Amino acid sequence: MSEPSSSALIPQAEFVAQFRAIGKERYHHQHPFHLLMHEGKLRRGQLQAWALNRYLYQARIPIKDAAILARSEDPDFRRAWRKRIIDHDGNPGTPGGIEKWLRLVEATGLSRAQAIQGEGILPATRYAVDAYVDFVRSRSHLEAVASSLTELFSKDLITLRVDRLREHYPWLSSGLDYFEGRMTQAPQDATFALDWVVQHARTGEQQQAALNALRAKCDILWAMLDALYFAYVTPGWPPPGAFRPADTL
Length: 249
Known about the structure:
- By secondary structure, the chain is an all-alpha fold.
- It has helices spanning 12-26, 32-38, 44-70, 75-89, 97-108, 112-117, 123-138, 141-146, 151-168, 177-200, 204-232.
- The chain starts with 11 loop residues before the first helix and ends in a 17-residue tail after the last helix.
């Protein structure tokens, strides 16, 4: 997950460029599961498995963000960061990202109860999601914030995904509200987090720790898709207790 460290302070422009280079190399937009999705080559059951497993990640995002917020003694930071929790939890009468993802689950043909109860979630998904929450709780505040910088790359993926889902899977159209909201939320969140990390990584060691945190987050997202690919594409071996799509039985 990590790269060789250096104690030399990296110039700001190069520091930012290195974050973007990590995204180009490691972000999960290049994963074979996503490539199949965007080419319209996934069956309904495979999309169901993706939506179901990804829900666990979505449901843990406010918990992860609450852990990051609780570690800060800066009220300005807390005011900015708490927006993320509201974006995902929503407010009375205003659905947040978790509710919107449940609507996507329902659009695939599964029940929201199955997602909420975690029925059929892959063990590897649980390990990966738990690893991310543990990362932001156990590492430095700087590393925890830097791990969120996958949002630097998510808008382009979301834009492509919405276009491809509408094109290839029109029966999912009623469940795409989540992605519409993230097109504006993610860039705003990423801008704040990147500026904060650049300002607070004051030594070469801290800069390397921040870069490694982003690498670790990319690895976690990639591992989640690896599990889906292994279980539902090739070789197609879901483990005992995992969701089994009707179109493969």
